[in-house]
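hey so i finaly got around to running the thing on Transcriptional regulator, IclR family, C-terminal domain protein from Afipia felis ATCC 53690. pasting the sequence first so u can double check i didnt mess up the copy paste, my clipboard has been acting weird all day
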Amino acid sequence: MNLENLDMKLPAPALAKGFAILALVAEQPGLKFADIRLRLKLPNSSCHHLLNTLCHLGALQMNEDRGFILGLRLLELGSLAAGQRTIEHQALPYLQRLSNELQLTCHLGVLEGYNAMYLLKVEGNREIRVNTWVGKRLSLHSSSLGKILLAWLPETEVDDKLRHVTWQQKGPKTLTDPQQYRDHLCEVRAQGWALDDEEDNPNVRCIAAPVFDMHGRVVAAASIVSTVLDISDSKIPQLAERVCAMAREISNDLGYRENAGRA
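ok and heres what it spat out for the 3d tokens, dont ask me to read them lol
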């Protein structure tokens, strides 16, 4: 994570820097003081004070090698945050049912800043498994969840999100042309579901569909993910129907009705 990606015009820039440190340590546990300071381009004294404060609050702790890892206070807050949300609790039974029927891994993801992020994961019973976890962030341009979460946004919001996309070639079929990607979003919205066809990782496919709230806004994306062997070309239409059906059930549970109109 780079502080240049943060809006440092926020009222409390020190808080933003503190969160940047937490995000960096979450991605790369065990980093030492010098690594954190260099990667986030922080002044020596500022980095020292922030790390001390985060350790004092229990958000960070130092391991035996004097590297930093996330503290138990974050585990406590994370558990409380999960308990205060409702969409995860309402979606979980539907993900569990479809995962059990298909023996594929199911996810629920949301838009978090300029990324998609997994809120739920139900593991399928397969010998070969895709490496995902709750809290994992995904690129908007290369993931099926990202496509779904962008496709129903107003054009101005899509413009804002795409300005932060790096257009990195992550897989053999990643879309790296902005206009081609915009055209693809129109197709996603028209068909009602999205496919990540080896765009985020080689040999991995993911199918996602939108979850609407009672106001007709897309608030999440539900998906299945597996290898190209499990999600073969011939199976894509049928599996897409199953994912869309699951997403509709979750949407209905959230109070969405077809006549509410889609945002």
